[in-house]
Structure formats: structure tokens, C-alpha cells
Amino acid sequence: MVAALWVALAIDRWLGEPAARWHPVVWIGRYLGWAGRRIAPPAEAARSPDLARFAAGALAWWAGAATVLLAAWAVAVAAARLPGWAEVLFLGLALKPLFAWRMLRDEVLAVEAALAGSLDAGRDRLAHLVSRDVHALNEAEVRESAIESLAENLNDSVVAPVFWFVLLGLPGAALYRFANTADAMWGYRGVRQGRVWEWAGKWAARADDVLSWLPARFTAFLLLSSCSLSRERERAGVRALPAIAREARHTPSPNSGWPMAAMALCLGVRLAKPGVYTLNEAGRAASAADTQRAASLAARVVVLLALVASASILGLAV
Known about the structure:
Strand content: under 5%
Strand order of the largest sheet: 1-2
Number of helices: 12
Helix content: over 70%
Number of strands: 4
Structural class: mainly alpha
Distance between the termini: 13 Å
């Protein structure tokens, strides 16, 4: 498993994402889109509470999760029957699509590059990363949103899949990716694309909360550890995880506030979602250089994650 993890990281670094037709997360998204259109009611037909929609959402989630688990288990079993080098390569190829560091970094840096051209270009590029309305954001808010997205997705797209891979192998990483994608597509409290997800998506949102709880805090710890290896921690005045915990409570999410707060404190910048929360309110406004600093800090987290994950896998195997 250690060698497979490093193969997956190398594939991500040098090749990036597979084509959409071969990407399991794309397949997951297609299933969720198909099922979602059948379980979430149109706005005019919505009611609350709606236990029937909740049950339908839970059943659809479990049907998808069971399929993903079975497929990942079958791949892992098939890999185990191959010669050693082939098993490592096959498992690494299967693991790679379940996390995405290179794409995340490139998309965040692309927002900053677009901002250098114009505010409208920066907003348009940011729309690839976030679900919020970007049209009213100023330059500072576009930059803050990009850095927030980097921190949040550092957990969702990198740390958490590897975390569950260490504990439960390929099925664990696949289940997490399914749950996180389901939350991204179904976990809304209001109206999205003309449908109400308050009850239909409630199970998906709670399942993601549970599976992300430990990884989100671990991501914050890795960020804190990574910035303590440089001068970032000294500049930010970060003392310990309690400071991150206090800031994380300002967000409505039980998990995403942890990596975002850690990033804000490590960089010494203020990060905010207008009308919702402000993290590290005493921090300075983020500059163009801070986006690059955030990407560099996240890159150190990925290296540290790989080392910790490798040591953990070896420790669990003893």
C-alpha cells in the first residue's frame, strides 16, 4: 500500500487527472445527478418536514455507496492477485482518481493569474472552484475565496481520501470520495437548480460531516505543522490548535472551518465569506503573493501527509 500511494502521488504530479470517460468520480457524479433529479422535489412541490424525501435520499445514497464499495473491493482483490510490481502499479492507478492535488493547486493559481488580467476574469475563473455567487465579489474577496477553497479542498480532495485509504484501503478512499461528492451535489439547505434539497440531501450532508470530522482536524494539524517548519507560524502568531478551533467555530460547517482557519492563521491573513463568517478578523488583507504562499504551504502538507501515511501503513502492518 505504501508503494501504491507513492505511485498515485507520482501520477498526480506528472500526469494529473484521467480523461472524464475513465474517471470514477465523474461516474459517481453522473449517478448522483440521475438520482438527485428523482429524489429532490421542485421548489413549488417542496414541504417541510419531508420524511419521504429524506428516506429516498438515504436509500439512494446507500445504493451508490454500496456499489462504489463493491467495485473498489473487487479492484483491490484483483490487484492482490497480480505480481508485486503489477499490484503496486494497478492499485496506484486505481487510487489516483480518488484524490486531486495537482488540479486543485493549478485551479487556485489560475484564479490569481486571471485576476492579474482583470477582476471579471478572476471572477469567471473562481466560478470553477466555488458554488457561491461570484459576480458581486471584489478583488480581495475573489482572492480570499480562492485561498479558502484551497484550504477546504486540501482536506476534501487530498487529505481525507488518503486518510481513509490508510485505514480501510481502496474501498475506504472510494467511499469517502462518493460521500464528499454526494454532499457537494445534494448537501444544500435551499434551492439549487430549481430543486429543494433540504430533506432529500440531508443524509448525504450528515454522512460527509461524519466521514470528514477527523480528516478536517488532521488537515488543520498538518497545516499548523507545515507552517511551523517555516517562518509562516512566527509571522502569523499561531500558538496551537486551540487558536484554530476558536476561529473554526465562526463557520457554519463542523469541518471546513478547521483547514480554512489554519490557513488564515498560518498566513496571517483575513478570510471571509461575505455575510456568513470572517476568519482571523485581525489579519491583513490577502495579497497576490499570499495565494502563492498558500499553495506552497499546501504543497508542504501533501509531502508531510505522504510521509505520515506511509509510516502509518507500515505501523499498522506490523
